[in-house]
C-alpha cells in the first residue's frame, strides 16, 4: 500500500482469475485503497465479499479528479465489474443526430456520439418513441433523407420527396444554405422541447406567404403550426418558473434499480425516460445515485443548468465541476426537501416504481412461458432432461461463395450472445449446404472435446497433489472461464430439413457424441420438426410457445449467419472496387484501409472523412465515396 501514489487516479481490483471485479476512483489512491483493508472500517456484506475476492490490484494515475471520474465511467462500461453499479445495456440506446457539420444537415439515428460538430439528442430508451419522433419530424419539417454530397455542385435530379413537399430540394439548388439552416434551427428547438419558440416565427412566415398570395405555402405552414400546438398542449406545466432541469429518482427491488429521468424545459415536462441498473441489495442509495449520474451524463449530449436528485451523491462538488465542464457553464446539483422540486422528485420516484412493477410482471410472465415451452419440448421430443441450453446452426452463402456458418445459443429461453460463434467455411468445390453444415458442427464439437480434455487434465493434476496448489487452481478457474465450447448443449437445432439434420448427426457420430447430444431440424416452409430415424415430422400448433421458442433461435441463427456473410461479401466487393477506381493503386488502397482501420470503415466514411486522408486528391476521394457505396449496396 505504501507504494501507491497519493495522487488522483483509478484503481482496478481483480480476483484470482484475473477478472476485474471493481473499478473505483480516488483523489488519493493510497488513502482510498488503504481504507478497504483498515480494521474498524464501516462495512457491509457487499464490501466484505469484495475484499475477500481481491487477489490483485492495478491503478492508473490521472492529472485531476475529473479525469479520474471520466476514466472510471469508461472502465466500468468496458469491464462490467461484478461489484459496480452498472447501467444495463447502455450501448444500445439510440440518439438522434443532426449533422450540423454538413452544408445541408440531415437527421439520423445513431448509436454512438462522436466529436464531429453534429448535435445529438437522446438517449431514447424507447425505440417506438424514437421512430414516432423521427416520423413526426420529417412530416413537420422538409429535411433531406438522402446521403448525396452537397458541398460541391448541386445538379442532381429531384426525387419524389421534393414533389410531395417532404424535401426542400437542396440537391438541385431549389433552396439556399441560409433558408435550409433556418429550418434546421427549428428542428433543434423542437428536439430541445422548445416548440413554443417555433410557433411565432412560423406564424409570421404564414402571414407573409398569404400576403404574397402563396396560399399553398401558407396552408403548409398553418398545418405545421397546428401540429406544434397539439404537442405543446400535451406538455404539462410542472413549475411556476421557466426552469431547465433534469429530475432523477429511482425505485429498487432486490438487485434491480429503475431510474426515472424527467426532462423539464421552460418549466414544462417535455419527456421522460427510464433506465435499468444492476446492483446489489446492500448498495447504498447514495452510491446508486452517484453511479447513475456519472454513467448517464457521460453519454448524454446535453446537460441542463440544474439537476434535481432524489438522493445526494458522493463528492457533489466534483460531480458539479465535471457537469459544468461538460455544459460549458455552471451546473447545480439539488436534493430538495420541500416545494415544487420535491413534488417532482416524488412523481419521478412513483413512476419509477410503476415501471419496475410492470417490468417484474412482464419478466414473471415471460419466465412462466419459457418454462412451459421448455417442458413441452422435453415431452414432445422425448428428451432425458429439460433443454436448458439450445444451440442452433445455420449456413449462408451465394452459390458457394463467401460461405459461412453461425452458431447461436439460448439458455433458459434467452440469448447468450457471449457464446455465439461464426465460422468461415473452409470447404471448396462449389455449393454443398450439407457438407458445409457437417463441417461447422464438426469444428464446434471437436473444439469442445479438446477443451474438455484440457480441463480434465488440469483437474487430474490438482487431484494428484498432496496439498492445495493456488497457482494450478487459478489456472483451472481461468481455463473454465475461457472454455466456451466445453459445455455441450441439451439440444442441437439445425436450420433445415432431413438433409441438413443428417449431415449434422453424421458429424456427431464421427466424434462419438451422437448418443450424448439430441438434434432436430426445423424446416422453414411448413415449420416442421424433423428427428432422425422418425419417418414423419412433428408438427406443433402454430400458437405453441415451444414452436415460437424454436423459431426465435432458428431466426436468430439465420440473422447472425446472414450478417457475417454480407460482411464478407461487402468487404470483398469494396476491395475489388478500390482496385477498379482510377487513381487508387495498391499503395493508396493500403493507405485508405490503414487510415480508417478496416474495409468497413472505408465503406462507411463520409466524403469529408475521405477528404481528410493525407495526400488523397478531391477527385479521387469523390470517386471512392461513390464507388464503395454502389459496390456495397445490398442486392
From TrEMBL:
Gene3D superfamilies: 5' to 3' exonuclease, C-terminal subdomain, GIY-YIG endonuclease, UVR domain, UvrC, RNAse H endonuclease domain
PROSITE patterns: GIY_YIG (PS50164), UVR (PS50151), UVRC (PS50165)
Any one GO MF annotation of this record: hydrolase activity
Any matching Pfam family: UvrC_RNaseH_dom
UniProt keyword annotation of Hydrolase present: yes
Positions of the GIY-YIG domain: 6-85
Localization annotation: Cytoplasm
Residue ranges of every copy of the UVR domain listed in the record: 196-231
Protein keywords: Cytoplasm, DNA damage, DNA excision, DNA repair, Excision nuclease, Hydrolase, SOS response
Domain UvrC family homology region profile: 247-508
Described purpose of this protein according to its UniProt entry: The UvrABC repair system catalyzes the recognition and processing of DNA lesions. UvrC both incises the 5' and 3' sides of the lesion. The N-terminal half is responsible for the 3' incision and the C-terminal half is responsible for the 5' incision.
Similarity comment: Belongs to the UvrC family.
Subunit note: Interacts with UvrB in an incision complex.
HAMAP family for this protein: UvrC
Name of protein: UvrABC system protein C
Annotated organism of origin: Geochorda subterranea
Amino acid at each position: 500500500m505504501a507504494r501507491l501514489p497519493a495522487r488522483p487516479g483509478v484503481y482496478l481490483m481483480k480476483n484470482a482469475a484475473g477478472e476485474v471485479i471493481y473499478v473505483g476512483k480516488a483523489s488519493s489512491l493510497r488513502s482510498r485503497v488503504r481504507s478497504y483493508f483498515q480494521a474498524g472500517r464501516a462495512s457491509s456484506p457487499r464490501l466484505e465479499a469484495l475484499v475477500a475476492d481481491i487477489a490483485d490490484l492495478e491503478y492508473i494515475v490521472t492529472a485531476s479528479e475529473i479525469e479520474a471520474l471520466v476514466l472510471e465511467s469508461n472502465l466500468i462500461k468496458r469491464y462490467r465489474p461484478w461489484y459496480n453499479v452498472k447501467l444495463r445495456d447502455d450501448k444500445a440506446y439510440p440518439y438522434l443526430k443532426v449533422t450540423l457539420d454538413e452544408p445541408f444537415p440531415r437527421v439520423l439515428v445513431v448509436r454512438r456520439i462522436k466529436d464531429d460538430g453534429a448535435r445529438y439528442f437522446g438517449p431514447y430508451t424507447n425505440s417506438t418513441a424514437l421512430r414516432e419522433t423521427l416520423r413526426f419530424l420529417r412530416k413537420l419539417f422538409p429535411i433531406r433523407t438522402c446521403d448525396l454530397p452537397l458541398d460541391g455542385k448541386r445538379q442532381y435530379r429531384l426525387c419524389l420527396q421534393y414533389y410531395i413537399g417532404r424535401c426542400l430540394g437542396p440537391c438541385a439548388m431549389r433552396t439556399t444554405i441560409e433558408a435550409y439552416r433556418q429550418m434546421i434551427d427549428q428542428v433543434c428547438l423542437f428536439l430541445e422541447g422548445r416548440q413554443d419558440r417555433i410557433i411565432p416565427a412560423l406564424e409570421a412566415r404564414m402571414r407573409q406567404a398569404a400576403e404574397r398570395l402563396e396560399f399553398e405555402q401558407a396552408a403548409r405552414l398553418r398545418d405545421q403550426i397546428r401540429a406544434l400546438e397539439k404537442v405543446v398542449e400535451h406538455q404539462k406545466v410542472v413549475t411556476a418558473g421557466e426552469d431547465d432541469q433534469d429530475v432523477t429518482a429511482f425505485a429498487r427491488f432486490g438487485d434491480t434499480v429503475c431510474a426515472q429521468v424527467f426532462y423539464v424545459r421552460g418549466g414544462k415536462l417535455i419527456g421522460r425516460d427510464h433506465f435499468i441498473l444492476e446492483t446489489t441489495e446492500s448498495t447504498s442509495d447514495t452510491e446508486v445515485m452517484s453511479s447513475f449520474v456519472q454513467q448517464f451524463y457521460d453519454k448524454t449530449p446535453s446537460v441542463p443548468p440544474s439537476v434535481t436528485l432524489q438522493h445526494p451523491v458522493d463528492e457533489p462538488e466534483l460531480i458539479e465541476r465535471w457537469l459544468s465542464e461538460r455544459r460549458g457553464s455552471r451546473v447545480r446539483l439539488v436534493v430538495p426537501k420541500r416545494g415544487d422540486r420535491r413534488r417532482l422528485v416524488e412523481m419521478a420516484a412513483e413512476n419509477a416504481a410503476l415501471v419496475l412493477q410492470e417490468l417484474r410482471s412482464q419478466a414473471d410472465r415471460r419466465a412462466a412461458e419459457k418454462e412451459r415451452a421448455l417442458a413441452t419440448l422435453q415431452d414432445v421430443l422425448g428428451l432425458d432432461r429439460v433443454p436448458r441450453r439450445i444451440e442452433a446452426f445455420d449456413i449462408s452463402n451465394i452459390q458457394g461463395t463467401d460461405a459461412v456458418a453461425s452458431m447461436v445459443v439460448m439458455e433458459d429461453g434467452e440469448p447468450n450472445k457471449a457464446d455465439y460463434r461464426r465460422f468461415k467455411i473452409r470447404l471448396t468445390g462449389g455449393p454443398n449446404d450439407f457438407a458445409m453444415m457437417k463441417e461447422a458442427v464438426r469444428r464446434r464439437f471437436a473444439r469442445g472435446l479438446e477443451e474438455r480434455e484440457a480441463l480434465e487434465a488440469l483437474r487430474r493434476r490438482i487431484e494428484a497433489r498432496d496439498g492445495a496448489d493456488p497457482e494450478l487452481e487459478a489456472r483451472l478457474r481461468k481455463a473454465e472461464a475461457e472454455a466456451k465450447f466445453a459445455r455441450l448443449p441439451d439440444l442441437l437445432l439445425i436450420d433445415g430439413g432431413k438433409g441438413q439434420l443428417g449431415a449434422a448427426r453424421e458429424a456427431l457420430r464421427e466424434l462419438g457424441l451422437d448418443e450424448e447430444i439430441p438434434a432436430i431440424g426445423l424446416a422453414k416452409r411448413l415449420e416442421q420438426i424433423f428427428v432422425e430415424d422418425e419417418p414423419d415430422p412433428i408438427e406443433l400448433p402454430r400458437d405453441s410457445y415451444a414452436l415460437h421458442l424454436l423459431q426465435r433461435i432458428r431466426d436468430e441463427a439465420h440473422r447472425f449467419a446472414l450478417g457475417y456473410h454480407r460482411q464478407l461479401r461487402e468487404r470483398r466487393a469494396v476491395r475489388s472496387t478500390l482496385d477498379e477506381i482510377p487513381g487508387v493503386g495498391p499503395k493508396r488502397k493500403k493507405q485508405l484501409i490503414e487510415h480508417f482501420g478496416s474495409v468497413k470503415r472505408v465503406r462507411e466514411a463520409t466524403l469529408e472523412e475521405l477528404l481528410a486522408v493525407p495526400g488523397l486528391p478531391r477527385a479521387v476521394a469523390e470517386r471512392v465515396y461513390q464507388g464503395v457505396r454502389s459496390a456495397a449496396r445490398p442486392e
